[in-house]
Every structure is written in structure tokens, then in C-alpha cells.
Amino acid sequence: MDDPALAHPAKLGELIQANKKKLCVAVLAGFGFGILVSVGFSICLGYSRGALNFHSNVFAYLSRSAFEYTLPKMQNPFPRSWVRIGLFGIGASATALLTILRVRLAWWPLHPIGFAISSTYLTRFGALSIFIAWLAKTIILRMGGVGAYRKSKPFFLGLLTGYAFAVASSFVVDALWFPGQDHRIHSW
How far apart are CA 98 and CA 94, in angstroms? Predict the structure, then answer.
């Protein structure tokens, strides 16, 4: 799973003083319920409206792409390539080195999992946002200290809230004034 959303209940568990086991059960129940409802609703809509009418890569392209990509590779497998084997060895060695450094040196900042997920879609998609947030936090902490950091939290929460409100408002406007036209406002 490439989604960092499951980190939020862990942070919530740190902030509240409730029973952590009940929080875990509630998160898992919500996760299971969400899966059941979304899968059931997608199946019902797929049969009643046609899944290709969703205008989504999941139904239009990705559902076929695994077979369209895998079958030719099975019929004509890759020839032995020493370059590929060498690149695999370099990747394995780099991961082993990062793991050893992480275990042996307490100050080592790079985690080997970062090397493994660095080429995934969501990492490439969100890397700039993560870097900007890290840079803003570093500048605030260096210039104003922990007090300035705590005072700046409402501003950044306001940015997130404003964005969520704008997406929700756009959805309502689109649903009321342009029903059935399927405008993409936010992809998630």
C-alpha cells in the first residue's frame, strides 16, 4: 500500500488518552466497512451503468494492462542480460549498505525503505510536497524555534482545511449546476 493514511490513526492514538485497542478495532472496522461499501457500490454501478463509463484508468486501462503486459513477456521472455543482473546486484548492495549503516550508526538519517519506495508513483507524485513541508518546518524551527513552530501550526492546518473546503465546495457546485458531466475536481 502506498497510501500514508494509516499513519493518521497512529498519530491520533498518541494524542488521545483513550483505550488504544478500541481505537485499533474502530479503525479496522471502518477500514473493512469502507472496503465492503466501495467494492459493492462499484460492482453495482459497473453492472448498471457499465464500468467503462466511470472514465477511470482502473476500469478502462489498468484492468487490462497487467494481462497485456504480462502475456508477451511470458511468450517471449527477456534474454539473459548481464546489465540487468549487475543493476540488481547494485540495488541489493545499496540496500544492504543502507541497512547496515542504519543499524550500526544511530545518527544515520537514511532508511533503506526509502531506497525501495523511491520509484513508486505516490513517492514521485508527493515528493515535492513533502520536500516543501520539510523545508518550511526546518526554516521555521531554525528562525523562530519551537515557539514559532507551534504558532505556525494553525496557519498550515488552515491551508489544509481551506483546500478541503474548496474541493468540497467545487464538488457541490459541480453536482448542482453540472449534474452528470463528470468533472474531475480532485483525484483522491
Answer: 6
Asked if 170 contacts 185 with a C-beta cutoff of 8 angstroms, the reply is yes
Spatial contact of 102 and 110, defined as CB atoms under 8 Å apart = yes
What does the pLDDT read at residue 1? 44
pLDDT band per the 50, 70, 90 thresholds, residue 35: very high
Asked if 121 contacts 2 with a C-beta cutoff of 8 angstroms, the reply is: yes
pLDDT at residue number 94: 93
Tell me how far the alpha carbon of residue 123 is from its chain's centroid: 7
3-state secondary structure of 13: helix
31: which 3 cell numbers?
477500514
**SS3 string of 94-140?**
HHHHHHHHHHHCCCCCCCHHHHHHCCCHHHHHHHHHHHHHHHHHHHH
d(Cα 55, Cα 182) in Å, to the nearest integer?
A: 9
The full set of domain ranges for the chain reads 1-77, 79-118, 127-188
End-to-end C-alpha distance for the chain, whole angstroms: 15
> Is-above-0.85 flag for pTM?
no
Between 46 and 128, residue with greater pLDDT: 128
